[in-house]
Specification:
Elements (H helix, E strand, L loop, with lengths): L9 H4 L18 E6 L7 H18 L11 E4 L2 H10 L14 H12 L9 H11 L6 H11 L10 E8 L4 E6 H6 L7 H8 L9 E6 L5 E8 L10 H18 L16 E6 L12 H4 L4 H5 L6 H6 L22 H16 L3 E3 L6 E3 L6 H25 L1
Parallel strand pairs: 1-2, 1-7, 2-3
Antiparallel strand pairs: 3-4, 3-6, 5-6, 8-9
């Protein structure tokens, strides 16, 4: 504002830039687009690197303002994947995504060491870690909680710029809880703050405290939640690659059954209508981890802590390995947030983009290259083109109707 009689400058009187219109719903196109991002603590740097590449491909096609959330009808995430999901889908003051994908790695690099403060290494460190694991969570989570709250403020899940799905687990009622934008718009008691949802799904046992909060409906009803990371119960280790994606797709199917007009384009079970990408955080090389002869000798304490790792949690929260299962040493940990390890994880993501597309041999569990598919980066470029074409189709369909 001009003051003291000064002339108002052109920049002060210029109208604000127009807010881009939201992407039309699937009923205006041919596909339902789904992105799922699995958990893995500091290893979130791997999907962050992949997503930055995908968004860059979209920007090559549709301009520098293109954002991941503009292209997906549903983004599902758990643990660190839910944090990424929230940053991609939380609105800024103009109802645009709060973060560009390129900002995700910067977030981890800046905040990772504060979320997972590293202990001094000494000859008593293994003993101290074991005692700490038995007595309570490894981290108090205060920085993580404050950071999430400062990012999302009072935004609730119903306010996100695209639909998101985040699973957690209620320890009081011993049942999974799934938060979704869809349900939040119809069920006020499920319309929790994004901060509470992210804190809950990040509360991996032995690492962070379980999270308690309440929601209140406009009529005054309230509901309690006593939540931890969904990995303890909602993640079937055998189907870990697909579980989060299937949670998202089941929520879409429920909306179809509710006759949500946004999804009136085909039968919910017809998977030809889905365009899906599932991004994990990688897993440790199986040969580098645990063996049956070793596990057979373990008691309760060794299952909770073994040479810097937590075997029981590793097994229950086994992350997706869609594109990479070769993490070794510190890179396979969820909480080693040293500069060296974080840069190594970014490097793994970049190297992964250069690797040939591979699929899991269901008989051996081994990833095998697929002839004629090129590299993962080339596959992302083809995927970005499909997303761009679908978005353009919806816009044209809406404008002509």
């Amino acid at each position: 504002m001009a003051s003291n009689g000064e002339a108002t400058t052109e920049s002060e009187t210029a109208a604000p830039a127009p807010v881009p219109e939201p992407t039309p719903p699937p009923c205006q196109g041919r596909l339902i687009t789904v992105l799922s991002i699995d958990g893995g603590g500091i290893r979130g740097l791997v999907p962050a690197t992949i997503l930055a590449c995908l968004e860059a491909k979209l920007q090559e096609l549709d301009g520098p303002e293109a954002r991941i959330a503009d292209y997906f009808d549903v983004i599902a995430g758990t643990s660190t994947g839910a944090l990424i999901t929230s940053m991609l889908a939380a609105p800024d003051d103009n109802r645009q995504p709060l973060f560009a994908a390129d900002d995700l790695t910067k977030f981890y690099l800046e905040n990772g060491p504060k979320i997972f403060p590293q202990q001094r290494v000494g000859f008593l460190t293994p003993v101290a870690n074991l005692i700490g694991t038995v007595r309570g969570p490894k981290y108090d989570g205060s920085f993580l909680h404050d950071k999430i709250k400062s990012l999302t403020h009072d935004v609730t899940i119903a306010d996100t710029v695209t639909n998101i799905v985040v699973p957690a687990f209620d320890v009081k009622y011993l049942q999974p809880i799934i938060f979704s934008t869809y349900e939040a718009k119809n069920e006020p008691l499920k319309n929790a703050h994004l901060s509470d949802i992210c804190i809950s799904t990040s509360a991996a046992p032995t690492y962070f405290l379980a999270h308690f909060f309440k929601t209140t409906s406009p009529s005054g009803e309230s509901r309690e939640f006593h939540l931890i990371d969904r990995g303890v119960a909602a993640n079937n280790p055998i189907l870990s690659i697909y579980h989060l994606t299937m949670v998202a797709m089941s929520m879409i199917s429920k909306e179809v059954l509710r006759e949500n007009q946004d999804f009136k384009l085909g039968k919910p079970a017809d998977y030809r209508h889905y365009l899906v990408i599932s991004i994990g955080t990688g897993t440790a090389t199986m040969a580098e981890k645990y063996t049956a002869p070793a596990c057979a000798k373990w008691g309760v304490l060794r299952w909770l802590y073994d040479s810097g790792f937590t075997p029981l949690i590793d097994i229950f929260s086994h992350a997706s390995a869609d594109m990479d299962d070769s993490l070794v040493g510190h890179t396979s940990s969820v909480d080693i947030a040293t500069e060296e390890n974080m840069e190594a994880l970014i490097g793994i993501g970049k190297d992964l983009l250069k690797k040939p597309v591979a699929r899991v041999n269901i008989d051996t569990g081994v990833h095998e290259p697929v002839d004629g598919e090129g590299t993962n980066e080339e596959a992302l470029a083809r995927f970005a083109k499909k997303l761009s074409e679908e978005r353009r189709l919806r816009r044209n369909s809406l404008s002509s109707s």
